[in-house]
């Protein structure tokens, strides 16, 4: 039997566009890099996620006539924030933040590549049913516990943690290694939801 390597560190969207100077900058996003690098030594499996949108992505406000960034729209799968253009495939903004150690990661999971559906979660697109493949990867490797860090606490970290808990993984979010967008109280809502579902908030 293969040896079970039971815990994975999932490093979510630590990319230039989510750091100061980027197009969807999260305050202090760059400050987590050293903390995340140091944490990597503690986990046998390290996985990166990368927000990775085509130029015509439907989550970009500028692909909707007259829409303001940070306004809401209705998509076939539900309400959706319209974001400033960010993390366009192959651009500098989509690259991992410089200084982040990406060398010893086993897997990079890209998400948000379907022009019609946004994908906050590392597990499912925002329709909550199209899988990214991450669950199958983790199950095949017999990984049952996940530790999540990255950007942003109240969007991609939150949706990833909630999906993971619902799938039966044990999930910890290390808050000092995350930063939030915090739009209209979204950080408080995210922490409340994660806590109520059993995500361990450290
Ligand atoms: C994210 C908004 C849009 C995130 C990604 O990584 O939290 N937020 N795309
Ligand atoms: Zn995005």
From TrEMBL:
MF-aspect GO terms: metal ion binding; nicotinamidase activity
Keyword Chaperone attached: no
Keywords: Hydrolase, Metal-binding, Pyridine nucleotide biosynthesis
Family: Belongs to the isochorismatase family.
Residues in Isochorismatase-like domain copies: 7-198
First and last residue of the signal peptide: none
GO biological process: pyridine nucleotide biosynthetic process
EC number: 3.5.1.19
Protein name in the entry: Nicotinamidase
Pathway field: Cofactor biosynthesis; nicotinate biosynthesis; nicotinate from nicotinamide: step 1/1
Enzyme class: hydrolase
Organism name: Neptunicoccus cionae
The keyword Hydrolase is annotated on this UniProt entry: yes
Gene: pncA
InterPro entries per the UniProt record, alphabetical: Isochorismatase-like_dom (IPR000868), Isochorismatase-like_sf (IPR036380), Isochorismatase_Nicotinamidase (IPR052347)
């Amino acid at each position: 039997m293969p040896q079970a390597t039971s815990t994975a560190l999932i490093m979510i969207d630590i990319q230039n566009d989510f750091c100061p100077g980027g197009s969807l900058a999260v305050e202090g996003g760059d400050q987590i890099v050293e903390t995340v690098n140091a944490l990597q030594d503690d986990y046998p499996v390290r996985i990166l996620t990368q927000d990775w949108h085509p130029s015509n992505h439907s989550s970009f406000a500028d692909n909707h006539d007259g829409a303001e960034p940070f306004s809401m729209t209705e998509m076939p799968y539900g309400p959706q924030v319209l974001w400033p253009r960010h993390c366009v495939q192959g651009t500098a903004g989509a690259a991992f933040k410089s200084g982040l150690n990406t060398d010893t990661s086993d897997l990079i999971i890209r998400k948000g590549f379907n022009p019609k559906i946004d994908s906050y979660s590392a597990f499912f697109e925002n329709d909550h049913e199209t899988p990214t493949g991450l669950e199958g990867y983790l199950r095949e490797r017999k990984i049952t516990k996940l530790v999540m860090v990255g950007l942003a606490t109240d969007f991609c970290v939150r949706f990833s943690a909630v999906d993971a808990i619902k799938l039966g993984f044990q999930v910890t979010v290390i808050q000092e290694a995350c930063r939030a967008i915090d739009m209209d109280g979204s950080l408080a809502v995210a922490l409340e939801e994660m806590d109520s579902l059993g995500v361990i908030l450290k």
